[in-house]
Design a protein that fits this description.
Helix content is 22%, strand content 39%. The chain has helices at 2-17, 197-231, and strands at 19-20, 28-30, 34-37, 42-47, 56-59, 64-68, 71-76, 87-91, 98-102, 105-113, 120-124, 129-132, 135-138, 142-146, 159-162, 171-179, 182-193. A hairpin with a 6-residue loop joins β8 and β9. The protein is rod-shaped, with a radius of gyration of 37 Å.
Protein backbone atom coordinates (compact mmCIF):
# COMPACT_ATOMS: atom_id res chain seq x y z
CA UNK A 1 0.00 0.00 0.00
CA UNK A 2 2.87 2.36 0.87
CA UNK A 3 4.48 1.75 -2.53
CA UNK A 4 1.21 2.63 -4.26
CA UNK A 5 0.96 5.91 -2.37
CA UNK A 6 4.55 6.78 -3.19
CA UNK A 7 4.01 5.97 -6.86
CA UNK A 8 0.90 8.14 -7.04
CA UNK A 9 2.80 10.98 -5.42
CA UNK A 10 5.65 10.67 -7.93
CA UNK A 11 3.24 10.65 -10.88
CA UNK A 12 1.35 13.66 -9.54
CA UNK A 13 4.52 15.66 -9.04
CA UNK A 14 5.63 14.73 -12.55
CA UNK A 15 2.48 16.40 -13.95
CA UNK A 16 3.47 19.69 -12.36
CA UNK A 17 7.25 19.70 -12.72
CA UNK A 18 7.28 18.48 -16.37
CA UNK A 19 4.66 20.91 -17.69
CA UNK A 20 5.04 23.57 -20.37
CA UNK A 21 3.62 26.79 -18.94
CA UNK A 22 4.07 28.72 -22.19
CA UNK A 23 2.04 26.50 -24.54
CA UNK A 24 -0.52 28.13 -26.87
CA UNK A 25 -3.64 26.39 -25.54
CA UNK A 26 -2.76 26.27 -21.88
CA UNK A 27 -5.55 25.73 -19.30
CA UNK A 28 -7.38 28.81 -18.05
CA UNK A 29 -8.20 29.48 -14.39
CA UNK A 30 -11.24 31.52 -13.40
CA UNK A 31 -10.50 33.72 -11.52
CA UNK A 32 -6.92 34.12 -12.76
CA UNK A 33 -5.62 34.68 -9.20
CA UNK A 34 -6.99 34.56 -5.64
CA UNK A 35 -6.49 36.63 -2.50
CA UNK A 36 -7.97 34.93 0.54
CA UNK A 37 -7.82 35.15 4.32
CA UNK A 38 -6.19 32.24 6.11
CA UNK A 39 -8.92 29.78 7.15
CA UNK A 40 -11.59 31.10 4.75
CA UNK A 41 -13.17 29.01 1.96
CA UNK A 42 -11.68 29.16 -1.53
CA UNK A 43 -12.90 28.11 -5.00
CA UNK A 44 -11.86 28.34 -8.66
CA UNK A 45 -12.50 26.71 -12.04
CA UNK A 46 -10.05 25.42 -14.63
CA UNK A 47 -10.99 25.01 -18.31
CA UNK A 48 -9.13 23.26 -21.14
CA UNK A 49 -9.72 23.27 -24.89
CA UNK A 50 -12.08 20.79 -26.61
CA UNK A 51 -9.15 18.88 -28.10
CA UNK A 52 -7.32 18.60 -24.76
CA UNK A 53 -9.44 15.95 -23.10
CA UNK A 54 -7.17 12.91 -23.45
CA UNK A 55 -5.69 13.40 -19.99
CA UNK A 56 -6.30 16.50 -17.91
CA UNK A 57 -6.53 17.19 -14.23
CA UNK A 58 -5.84 19.50 -11.30
CA UNK A 59 -3.05 19.11 -8.75
CA UNK A 60 -3.60 20.66 -5.32
CA UNK A 61 -3.10 19.49 -1.71
CA UNK A 62 -6.44 20.93 -0.55
CA UNK A 63 -10.15 20.56 -1.13
CA UNK A 64 -12.18 18.60 -3.64
CA UNK A 65 -12.68 18.83 -7.40
CA UNK A 66 -15.39 17.94 -9.87
CA UNK A 67 -14.76 17.37 -13.59
CA UNK A 68 -17.51 18.30 -16.07
CA UNK A 69 -16.71 18.31 -19.78
CA UNK A 70 -13.75 20.62 -20.32
CA UNK A 71 -13.93 22.21 -16.86
CA UNK A 72 -12.72 21.23 -13.39
CA UNK A 73 -14.38 22.93 -10.42
CA UNK A 74 -12.23 23.13 -7.29
CA UNK A 75 -13.18 24.25 -3.79
CA UNK A 76 -11.81 23.95 -0.27
CA UNK A 77 -13.73 24.78 2.93
CA UNK A 78 -10.65 26.29 4.60
CA UNK A 79 -7.48 27.73 3.13
CA UNK A 80 -4.83 26.46 5.54
CA UNK A 81 -1.81 26.36 3.21
CA UNK A 82 0.38 29.45 3.08
CA UNK A 83 2.15 28.49 -0.15
CA UNK A 84 -0.40 26.63 -2.25
CA UNK A 85 -0.58 27.10 -6.03
CA UNK A 86 -2.98 24.65 -7.76
CA UNK A 87 -1.78 23.48 -11.17
CA UNK A 88 -4.16 22.54 -14.00
CA UNK A 89 -2.72 20.40 -16.82
CA UNK A 90 -3.46 18.24 -19.84
CA UNK A 91 -1.39 15.85 -21.95
CA UNK A 92 -1.02 16.72 -25.62
CA UNK A 93 -2.28 14.21 -28.20
CA UNK A 94 0.19 11.70 -29.65
CA UNK A 95 2.90 12.77 -27.19
CA UNK A 96 3.83 12.77 -23.55
CA UNK A 97 4.19 16.55 -23.50
CA UNK A 98 2.05 18.36 -20.97
CA UNK A 99 0.65 21.86 -20.91
CA UNK A 100 -0.28 23.51 -17.62
CA UNK A 101 -1.26 26.69 -15.78
CA UNK A 102 -0.80 27.69 -12.15
CA UNK A 103 -3.29 29.59 -10.04
CA UNK A 104 -1.49 32.18 -7.85
CA UNK A 105 -3.00 32.38 -4.36
CA UNK A 106 -2.12 35.04 -1.80
CA UNK A 107 -3.08 34.01 1.73
CA UNK A 108 -3.24 36.87 4.23
CA UNK A 109 -3.68 36.99 7.99
CA UNK A 110 -3.63 39.75 10.58
CA UNK A 111 -0.76 39.58 13.13
CA UNK A 112 -0.83 36.83 15.72
CA UNK A 113 1.56 36.48 18.67
CA UNK A 114 4.18 33.74 18.64
CA UNK A 115 4.64 31.81 21.85
CA UNK A 116 3.45 32.98 25.28
CA UNK A 117 5.25 36.14 26.42
CA UNK A 118 5.25 37.17 30.09
CA UNK A 119 3.06 40.24 30.52
CA UNK A 120 3.80 40.79 34.24
CA UNK A 121 7.51 41.32 34.81
CA UNK A 122 9.35 42.02 38.07
CA UNK A 123 13.02 42.92 37.77
CA UNK A 124 15.80 44.20 40.03
CA UNK A 125 17.15 47.70 39.47
CA UNK A 126 20.36 47.61 37.44
CA UNK A 127 19.38 44.42 35.60
CA UNK A 128 18.89 44.27 31.80
CA UNK A 129 15.29 44.31 30.54
CA UNK A 130 14.16 42.49 27.38
CA UNK A 131 10.57 42.64 26.08
CA UNK A 132 9.59 40.46 23.12
CA UNK A 133 6.31 40.62 21.17
CA UNK A 134 7.21 38.49 18.13
CA UNK A 135 4.24 37.88 15.81
CA UNK A 136 3.55 36.31 12.43
CA UNK A 137 1.20 37.42 9.71
CA UNK A 138 0.89 38.05 5.99
CA UNK A 139 1.90 40.66 4.95
CA UNK A 140 4.81 40.66 7.41
CA UNK A 141 3.93 42.87 10.40
CA UNK A 142 5.71 46.02 11.58
CA UNK A 143 6.38 46.92 15.23
CA UNK A 144 6.24 50.09 17.32
CA UNK A 145 6.69 50.62 21.06
CA UNK A 146 5.21 53.08 23.56
CA UNK A 147 6.99 53.75 26.84
CA UNK A 148 5.27 54.11 30.26
CA UNK A 149 5.59 57.87 29.86
CA UNK A 150 3.43 57.71 26.73
CA UNK A 151 6.25 58.68 24.39
CA UNK A 152 7.29 56.41 21.49
CA UNK A 153 10.47 54.32 21.66
CA UNK A 154 12.97 54.32 18.81
CA UNK A 155 12.85 50.52 18.44
CA UNK A 156 11.04 49.27 15.33
CA UNK A 157 11.80 45.59 15.92
CA UNK A 158 9.90 42.94 17.84
CA UNK A 159 12.28 43.31 20.80
CA UNK A 160 12.80 46.25 23.16
CA UNK A 161 15.87 46.21 25.40
CA UNK A 162 17.14 48.39 28.26
CA UNK A 163 20.68 47.59 29.40
CA UNK A 164 20.20 48.64 33.03
CA UNK A 165 16.75 49.46 34.39
CA UNK A 166 16.04 52.09 37.04
CA UNK A 167 12.90 52.79 39.03
CA UNK A 168 11.87 55.35 36.38
CA UNK A 169 11.71 52.51 33.81
CA UNK A 170 8.86 50.77 35.60
CA UNK A 171 5.33 50.91 34.22
CA UNK A 172 3.24 49.85 31.23
CA UNK A 173 4.96 49.21 27.89
CA UNK A 174 2.83 48.77 24.77
CA UNK A 175 3.94 46.94 21.63
CA UNK A 176 1.79 47.59 18.54
CA UNK A 177 2.01 44.95 15.80
CA UNK A 178 0.43 45.91 12.47
CA UNK A 179 -0.03 44.89 8.89
CA UNK A 180 -2.60 45.84 6.24
CA UNK A 181 -5.04 43.31 7.72
CA UNK A 182 -5.10 44.49 11.31
CA UNK A 183 -3.30 45.57 14.48
CA UNK A 184 -2.80 43.95 17.87
CA UNK A 185 -1.51 45.68 21.01
CA UNK A 186 0.55 43.79 23.57
CA UNK A 187 1.05 45.29 27.04
CA UNK A 188 3.90 44.52 29.45
CA UNK A 189 3.62 45.69 33.06
CA UNK A 190 7.15 46.10 34.42
CA UNK A 191 7.87 46.47 38.15
CA UNK A 192 11.39 47.55 39.11
CA UNK A 193 12.53 46.54 42.60
CA UNK A 194 14.97 49.03 44.11
CA UNK A 195 18.01 47.76 45.97
CA UNK A 196 17.61 48.62 49.70
CA UNK A 197 20.67 50.82 50.28
CA UNK A 198 19.89 51.36 53.96
CA UNK A 199 19.76 47.61 54.57
CA UNK A 200 23.03 47.10 52.74
CA UNK A 201 24.70 49.89 54.75
CA UNK A 202 23.35 48.39 57.97
CA UNK A 203 24.73 44.98 57.09
CA UNK A 204 28.12 46.48 56.27
CA UNK A 205 28.19 48.45 59.56
CA UNK A 206 27.29 45.35 61.58
CA UNK A 207 29.94 43.33 59.77
CA UNK A 208 32.58 46.00 60.45
CA UNK A 209 31.53 46.19 64.10
CA UNK A 210 31.77 42.43 64.52
CA UNK A 211 35.25 42.41 63.01
CA UNK A 212 36.30 45.35 65.20
CA UNK A 213 34.98 43.75 68.41
CA UNK A 214 36.59 40.46 67.50
CA UNK A 215 39.88 42.20 66.84
CA UNK A 216 39.66 44.02 70.20
CA UNK A 217 39.05 40.82 72.13
CA UNK A 218 41.91 39.15 70.33
CA UNK A 219 44.25 42.07 71.13
CA UNK A 220 43.28 42.01 74.81
CA UNK A 221 43.71 38.25 74.89
CA UNK A 222 47.20 38.54 73.44
CA UNK A 223 48.09 41.41 75.78
CA UNK A 224 46.84 39.62 78.92
CA UNK A 225 48.63 36.46 77.90
CA UNK A 226 51.97 38.26 77.67
CA UNK A 227 51.47 39.94 81.09
CA UNK A 228 50.61 36.65 82.76
CA UNK A 229 53.65 34.97 81.30
CA UNK A 230 55.89 37.66 82.79
CA UNK A 231 54.37 37.35 86.29
CA UNK A 232 54.61 33.59 86.51
CA UNK A 233 57.99 32.18 87.73
Amino acid sequence: MLYVILLVGILCSAHVSGCDRNCADKPVFTPSRLVVKYGDPVAANCSVCENCLDLFGLETPLGEQNKTGTMISWKAPKMIEWHSAPSCYYTKKDSDDQCCSTLPITVYHKPRLQGSPHFQITIKAGSPLLLNCSAWGNPSPSYSWTLPSGSPHSSSSNVLTIDSVASADGGLYTCSVSNSRGTINVEFNVTVEEINIILIIGIVVVAVAVVAVGGLFYWRYQTNGKICSRLLP
